[in-house]
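Q: Hi! First time doing this. I have a protein sequence and I read that you can turn it into a structure. Is that right? Here it is:
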Amino acid sequence: MANLKKHKIKKLLKSLILPVFLIFLAVAFFLTNTKENYWKDISEKLNISSQSVNCDMEVHFLNVGDADCAYIKCGDYKILIDAADKEPSDTVCEYLIKHNVKKLDLVIMSHPHRDHIGQMKSIIDNFDIDKFVQSDIPENILPTSVTYENMLKSLVDKKVNTKTLGAGDNFNLGDLKFKILGPVKSSENLNNCSLVVKIEYKDVSFLFTGDAEKAEEYSMLKSGRNLNATVLKVGHHGSTTSTTANFLKAVHPKYAVISSEDKQNKNSVIKRLEESCERVYKTYENGNIIFITDGKNIDIKTEK
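A: Yes, that's right. Below is the predicted 3D structure, encoded as structure tokens:
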């Protein structure tokens, strides 16, 4: 009787092997395709290019409304350019924390208007900063706002190494080359005191213009310096005060990024950019915009 039961059990197990194996294959196939489709959906949602590019350098243009803020990572170096407006508060800190930033090797303030330094105090208070860079601003036009004064106090309290730079100053940070193209000369217009910075990584370059207006663009053109760049962070949020035809021709960017709210019609600047560039990205349409490069090729992904 015992042998008969054992025989039946063995027979039953043998009969179950093939169906169980087939079920296992079916489940594995389903999960594999689901995973592939999941990542395909994610890639399409983020608009990730199909081209594979080594992530040597990342440049993040944050969606911060009518304000500016960019985070750059290259190797172990982390850089912040401007710090948005005061509202919504702590968005820049939260973004950096999300990207595991504990220390900033370089912070660049283009100029001290609130829409560029709104959250700078919070950045200084919450992160270790190796060097803080600003432009030389005439004393008679220095802001007297609480935002600016609080930022200065935090710089002093944390004993941050602060440098004032102008056109012609160059320096390196790891494999990154920084070239200061403006301001070329002193101005009574705070926008035209914007620190204009060109950052080069191998064959790729990014030009950050702050809020530099037509007069400063003209001065940069007259200076004879090489303005050509792969990516242009469009001056003054895409307004008609900046990005003249001659300046755009000299920069000759492949891509342009406008950081602003959707308050603009198709003004002359946007039309000019769309005619000149391969692609114009707008934070109010695309959300956060991230450029990924190996120094030769570029991938671009967007939040929207």
